Amino acid sequence: MLIIYNPAAGRRRATRLWRVLDVMIHNGVQLELAETQYAGHATELAREAAQAGKQLIVAAGGDGTIAEVAAGLAGTESKMGIIPLGTANVLAQELGLPFAPKDLAAALAFGRTTTIWPGVAQAGAQSRLFVQMLGAGFDAEVVRHLSLPLKKAIGRNAYVLQSLRESVRYDFPKIHIRIDGKVEEAGSVIITKGRFYAGHYTLAPDASPTKRGFTVALFDRAGPVSALAYGTALTLDQIFRMPGFRLCEAQVVELGPCHTQADGDPSESGPLVVQDAQRPIAVVVG
Question: Which residues contact 231 (CB under 8 A, 6 or more apart)?
Fold first, then answer.
């Protein structure tokens, strides 16, 4: 078993990792640990391990690290494990993974799997695999300008602070989007594989990362007041009552020129095409 660890996760989250490893080693599990050194390194490490015949490669980090490992395993027979160490841990919550160290170690040792269908955003010759969601508009601007040291220091509160900053300087251009051939326009867009956004907040109740296709959340109203109102409504589980909020099912989504974020990391700028990966990935869930 190879565990790919993002050392930027912070001391408190690293403690969870060491506790999981202690349990596994105590029970005789043979494992290797590889630390990432730069953006994209987890993809390289995972790909090399899969090519070398490793059957289980574990992503220890947040959704961004998980997406990088998944990209390295795409098209291979290797399984992916998850030790959630991120700020939001959205995919772990989607799949109902345990968070307690003993339970995590037991889940990885037991090895029962489910399959997820990642999405792929293609922008010219560049592509980005994502496991949970891709956002365009206001939330992408928040992610693009987010201070990583601040995120490490105060966690998800850094997103709240950055949202307030962006609300007064972002110009909220309309986003042009084509959903299975139908042309739409919105203030912000989130293309999601799962139910949750920013942790445990419900955005698309019928979505699942284990199914093909996407749910597209369209926020029709733009501007600072609308952006903050949508964000507040989401945290209060009132987003479905907000005017201008719509959900659409899709197989292929095309975005016009815009900045995007994928699984909480800055991603390729549009125009781009979003569709399912060619093959699913087996994920250990317990």
Answer: 163
- Whether residue 257 has a cis bond before it, omega within 30° of 0: no
Distances in Å between the Cα of 83 and the Cα atoms of 58, 65, 151, 283 are: 7, 10, 19, 11
Burial class (CB in 10 A: 0-12, 13-18, 19+), 42: buried
CA–CA separation, 180 vs 56, rounded Å?
Answer: 35
CA distance 138 to 216: 15
Please report, for the chain, the start and end positions of each structural domain, with discontinuous segments joined by +.
2-111, 121-278
Q: Are 20 and 52 in contact (CB under 8 A)?
A: no
The candidate with the shortest Cα–Cα distance to 178, out of 271, 275, 253, 273, is: 253
CA 131 to chain centre: 5
Summarised one tens digit per residue, pLDDT across range 30-85 is 899 999 999 999 999 999 999 999 999 999 998 999 999 999 999 999 999 999 98
DSSP per residue over 62-127, as a string?
SHHHHHHHHHHHTTSS-EEEEEE-SSS-HHHHHTT---SHHHHHHHHHH--EEEE--EEEEETTEE
Residues 6+ apart with CB under 8 A from 238: none
Domain topology for 2-111 = Rossmann fold (3.40.50)
- pLDDT, one tens digit per residue, over 177-219 is 999 999 999 999 999 999 999 888 999 999 999 999 999 999 9
d(CA 190, CA 203) in angstroms, rounded, equals 9
What CATH number is given for 121-278 in this structure? 2.60.200.40
